[in-house]
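Lab notes, practical 5.
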Amino acid sequence: MIFLTKYGREFVWPAATALIFVFGGRTGRRAAVMMAIAMLISIPVASVTKEIVARPRPIIPLSDFLIAAGSDFSFPSGHAIVVSAGAGVALAMFRGSSRRTAASLVLAAEATLVGISRVYVGGHYPLDVVGGILLGLAIAFIVVGSSKQIDSLLHSVVKTSRS
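Output from the prediction step:
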């Protein structure tokens, strides 16, 4: 569980996004770009929401045994919001074959385990993780719903930079 807390968001998700981009064909490239956008949007959303809610982290005796106590606020879980945004986009956009669907389901399972790990190691209350999941999914569905506009914006930026 500590591995998921330490590396689930910072290592697994960038690597998974890159692998989907490289090996996922046209659908994978589009899904990977939208996953990256959703995850990047979720970081400031989590920070701003933490400052607004200002919920202290759990105080668990000897919690430093598993992870060092966080110094920022607890709600929502930043880990949960980022991985849920990525998983939501993957589930919505990276499908169409059994291999793509399986990859998306594996990422969703990994996101679930990251959320569970955050409670297990004493970094968050369960509601912090649930709030992070809901915010992450909301961001994912906004990005997926705006994907045509994002595509055209990215195409115009790439076209302009090549000129």
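Observations recorded by the TA: The chain has one domain: 2-55+66-153. Residues 25-53 form the longest helix (29 residues).
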